[in-house]
Amino acid sequence: MAPTLTKRDVDQIKKEMQDEMTEQVTEQVTQKVTQQVTQKVTQQVTEELSKIFDQKLRDELQKLGFTQHQEPQGEACPSPSLAHVSTKGSNAPVDVSESDDDDHDHESDDDDLDDDLDDDLDDDVDDELSPLYVDTPFHLVAMGKVHNLGPTIHHQKIAADFVRVEVIEVIDG
């Protein structure tokens, strides 16, 4: 004789199956909703952080004296300085009447130039490395030190939107 199921047994099996299916559907829906919420929150946080980063970058660049401006079409960018004029005479014209047989050491001219440059670099230097950007705030080309030397470099006036930097590390060049 085969076992018989009562209505009560059938109702119990039906309830267990419904509970199991409900649990599976609930788990799937929870996973899907969690995934969607996570994506949306991640997108919002990324956008907000990007806005904050952009603002802080603009503020930092403004502190360093960089301003965002567009050059009018057709006008060339002003030259930051003219020829280097050394206070030590290391850039004085070489007398072409001297012969190559002389004991004149041409490397000493370079040493004088290096000493002159080193003297200038010792003035008001920000020891912290600063990012150096080209064209856009997102095109980092180098890390360098900013030298706050005033409106002249080697006795030559420089444009207000120029600053003297010492490149320490080239990143994209």
Topology diagram in text:
Blueprint: H1 7-63, H2 107-121, E1 130-133, E2 140-147, E3 152-153, E4 156-157, E5 164-170
Antiparallel strand pairs: 1-2, 2-5, 3-4
Give an overview of the whole structure.
Among the domains are: 8-63; 114-173, no CATH class. The longest helix is centred in the N-terminal third of the chain and has 57 residues, at 7-63. Residues 70-78, 80-84 and 92-111 have low confidence and may be disordered. The radius of gyration is 36 Å and the shape is rod-shaped. It has helices spanning 7-63, 107-121, and strands spanning 130-133, 140-147, 152-153, 156-157, 164-170. It is α+β, with helices and mostly antiparallel strands. Residues 97-128 have a biased composition (Acidic residues). Residues 63-128 are annotated as: Disordered.
Give the total of beta strands: 5
Which sequence of strands runs across the widest sheet?
1-2-5
Low-confidence stretches: 70-78, 80-84, 92-111
Separation of termini? 90 Å
Short description:
The protein is an alpha+beta fold and 173 residues long.
Give a quick set of tags describing it.
5 strands; two-stranded antiparallel sheet; 2 helices; three-stranded antiparallel beta sheet
